[in-house]
Amino acid sequence: MLVLRPVELTDLPQLQRLARESLVGVTSLPDDTERLRERILDSCDSLGKDVQGHGPENYFFVLEDLTNQRLAGCSEILATAGFNEPFYSLRNRHFTSASRELNIEHGVPALSLCHDLSGHTLLRGFHIDTALVGTPSAELLSRARLMFIAAHTGRFAEAVITEIVGYSDEQGRSPFWDALGKHFFDLPYPEAERLCGLESRTFLAELMPHYPIYVPMLSQAAQDCIGRIHPEGQEAFDILEREGFETNSYIDLFDGGPTLYARLANIRSIAQSEIAEVTPVDAIDARGRYLVSNDSLKDFRAIVADLDYNPGRPVALSAKMCTALNVTDGGPVRVIAL
């Protein structure tokens, strides 16, 4: 059985393995021991705080196979993007120019550096073993974060965003980066993303042009990358789109990947998940597949379970499920259909 839980310091060696395997562009999972250690300790500290509102807290989760204690993935929530420094992105909007004398009005798409998205809660760091792509485990890794938010809404903003990794080829080259960012940093795309993961995007963003970049002046290859998803990022995009997230006018300033946005009230796993009382049973006549979590903070747990669940009534869980969730007879769990 796979269970999602908060990260622990003992997970560091396995997290390093996941970092080495992660897609270029997943900057929140740097292949660096000290940075990963800091990220783990930051998450542990965030879970120990008595928080009254959303601040700089970071919540880091891992997907563990309980059979062999092997980590199969990880994902994160940053309570407030841009809390300590601006969260930069590119705004893609039309600029209109007009001439009364010639009776001409023309609109041109342009990219502008901004930090409009600062203040929103940010989902990041999604990585899952290749063998689990397209399985319920990928849904668990992504959506259980939303169930955590549902249980602790006071710790998060009223809207959630996430950046989906943009296109780069098999050699790690990004046409968008080569047409734009590379002119301001003499760095290849993978190195820029690596530095962003080790330090922050701020020092790179501050060197980007602070005036509009007219899209038609970019190469066609770069234009084609605007809002384009890396094939390995499609899983993360599809899951959140089904949750109610939508694309908007913002893209990643390094690879041009799309940004997804949703208000808490419109996110399926938050708005539609239900609280049920646990009834331990020896056998389950399963009628459907569900995501199930407890509502704990430090001891948060979530699993995929085949259940016979009827809204408004207790939910029958096996002893194995109860153990994985750290719940007992009569305790509450949060449930939503897969």
Automatic annotation (TrEMBL):
Gene label: astA_2
Gene Ontology MF terms in the entry: arginine N-succinyltransferase activity
SUPFAM superfamilies assigned: Acyl-CoA N-acyltransferases (Nat)
Matching InterPro entries: Acyl_CoA_acyltransferase, Arg_succinylTrfase_AstA/AruG
Entry keyword set: Acyltransferase, Arginine metabolism, Transferase
Protein source organism: Pseudomonas fluorescens
EC numbers, comma separated: 2.3.1.109
This protein's name: Arginine N-succinyltransferase subunit alpha
A Pfam family: AstA
GO biological process terms held by the UniProt record: L-arginine catabolic process
